[in-house]
Amino acid sequence: MKNLQSFSITPLGATNTLGTRTKITDNRFNKSKIISYDYSLNSHYDNAKKYLEGKGYQIAFLSETKTGYILLTAPDIGFFELT
Questions:
Q1: Looking at the predicted structure, is the pLDDT value of residue 79 above 60?
Q2: Is residue 16 within a helix (H) or strand (E), and if so which, with residue range?
Q3: pLDDT attached to residue 1
Q4: For the chain, which end, N or C, has fewer CB atoms within 10 Å of the first or last residue's CB respectively?
Q5: Where are the beta strands (DSSP E) in the chain?
Q6: For 40, which DSSP code?
Q7: What total number of domains does the chain contain?
Q8: Who's near 17: CB < 8 A, 6+ residues apart?
């Protein structure tokens, strides 16, 4: 059986001092990263996907949840800690 690494993606609304952001949580290492929302993209999913692919991940699957998304990496690329 192949192992996949999962990430929870949560949209974060704007505050008085910060714009819209995307929170990416690595479900294996229980670490998270908050990134600025890129308005040239269509969704928080696309925003997180662009960030993770830039870190060497290959996104294989997407699932929607009530609060955001779950992204799964392609098998056999290894596990990396979210930085």
A1: no
A2: none
A3: 64
A4: N
A5: 6-12, 21-26, 31-36, 59-64, 69-73
A6: T
A7: 1
A8: none
Q: Are 82 and 24 in contact (CB under 8 A)?
A: yes
User: What are the structure tokens assigned to 27, written together?
Assistant: 């479900």
Question: Residue 59's domain spans which residues?
Answer: 6-73
Residue 64 lies in a domain: yes
| Residue 3, both tokens | 């192992």
Q: What is the pTM of this model?
A: 0.85
81 belongs to a structural domain: no
Query: Are the beta carbons of 70 and 6 closer than 8 angstroms?
Result: yes
Which amino acid would we find at residue 29? Answer: F
Tokens 């040239």, residue located: 40
